[in-house]
Amino acid sequence: MKNKIKKLNRKIPRKEAGRKVTINELALMIGKGFAGVDAKFAQVNERFTQMDERFDRMDERFDRMDERFDRMEMKLDSLERRIFAIEDILTVHGKDIRETKEDVKEIKTELRTLKKVDNGNSDKIFGLEQRVKVLEVKTR
User: Fold this and answer.
1) pLDDT tens track for 94-132
2) Residue 112 resides in a domain
3) Helices 123-138 and 23-118: crossing angle, nearest 10°?
């Protein structure tokens, strides 16, 4: 702080012995001081302009990012709905498979009973047994 005061003191012209500063000289000194301040303000103003431009670019990027996140969120919602639908289908399908397995077991039991009664002479019973074996493989 003291260094700044010393520098300011050096810039102020010293009054020579017996000489007075005229109003014109004082006006020139003040004008030079304001010219320096104007230059500094111009630099600061230029920096603010650059910052405004950078913030505008950042705002544009954030807007694009918001749009992308919105699209991603819509896609995720769509995928979630599809997953729920698939889960519902699989739940129903699982029940169907379990019911089909039970039906196949009952049919096998009945075919065995019929085969015993028929003494294994029926081609139709043999064909049905083959079809039941295929169903067993498909329901595993």
Assistant:
1) 778 888 888 888 888 887 877 777 776 777 777 788 888
2) yes
3) 160
Are the C-beta atoms of 128 and 111 separated by less than 8 Å?
yes
Supply the range of the domain harboring residue 128.
19-138
Distance CA 34, CA 25 (A): 14
Indicate whether 130 belongs to any domain. Answer: yes
Total of domains in the chain: 1
Regarding pTM above 0.70, the answer is no
Tokens (6 digits) for 28: 């020139």
For tokens 């896609």, name the residue.
75
Q: Residue 12 domain-assigned?
A: no
In a domain, 99, yes or no: yes
Query: 108-121: string of b/e by CB count within 10 Å (b at 16+)?
Result: beebeeebeeeeee
